[in-house]
Amino acid sequence: MNGKPVTPHYPTPSWNVATIANDQSNHVTAHQVEYISSLTALRGIAALLVAVFHFEMAIARFVPAAQSMFFEKCYLMVDLFFIMSGFIMMHVYSTHFKNNIQPKSLKNFLVARFARVYPLHLFSLLLLVVIVRWITNWGNPPIVFEQPADILPNIFLLQSFGVTKIYSWNIPSWSISAEWAAYLLFPIIALSINKKKIFSVILLIILIVVAYYAIMYLLPRKNPLHSSIPVPHNLNTTFDYGYLRGIAGFTAGILVYITYELRFIRKAFSHDIVSLLIIIAITMSMHFSLNDGITVFLFALLVLSFTANNGLFYKLCKRKSLQFLGDISYSVYLMQIFLQEPFSHNIYLPGITGIGRGKQNIDFSSGVMYCIGYLILLILISYITYQWVERPSRRFINRIWGNKVISN
What we know:
By secondary structure, the chain is mainly alpha-helical. The protein is 59% helix and 0% strand.
């Protein structure tokens, strides 16, 4: 294939973060696929909401949980990333594993995924290690999030498999570890669906439900900062069972894509009113802190509605500003740690009351002002790393080890 796809739609990878954005400009597969720009915009919005969530956790909480749990629940945006990722992988790569798993197809798939997620992860991790080592001398002594022993697990993408005692270093990168686990399973899942669709769908639904239920109610989770505090029945697992959360969300995205293939479903979800009602339902679910399983189910419907929509939401999502945010969303996700890092070393904003992660409060107006400045600076930094780290490294790796024909 030479040049960009000529069809008007083709779903870009989700992120995550979460984490595989912008394949439409560096597509290395041998066939053309439909591009759905709505997912690019959705990915960008979700990345900013994750950044606001971490602002409230690490820097200053300006919306008390008693007033609204919406931002408190924005950790669930990572699950939205996983769902979008599974959807995109099924759309783009499922035919590569239709009859069997050929070594060449497997290699090209894994190289493309590695090129997309790993370079920026490694760059951000090593940059953070250098800053912590030479600027803070390991923190004198090192803080719990920045233990030298946890560097290697992060390098080898093991930070979501319970090998560390807490989320560490570039904290959001746990989801990259979980995403990679899902990538490794994807060829087997895709082949199974292509061979025995009904049986595979039923089995995957059961596994998803069991995985989410186990995370919320069965697995022995502990609060990594205060072990005596009970862990709520939610999906906010990261360093311990994050891989299970990622695989479940990714697989849910695969099932959403199978549903999307049904023409009558696409027609039913193509209307603006459907997308609007789903957005309202998600907002209410997060605001009132309903069970995380409900919100994740609504996320699946959101992805379905955004990919099928051909009305106002589709036109809004095509705006350059939202497409830009989607393009740099992976950088937004991984580079936010550098704006939060000073506040992990006893630096506080003026007007803060309370000490401790998630306990530093500030009045609403000041918090909004600081948060807007934080997001603007984050977008600027992310644009730089997108242009100078993400895209060049992805193209280089694909050119050297992946398919030789790469779109520009």
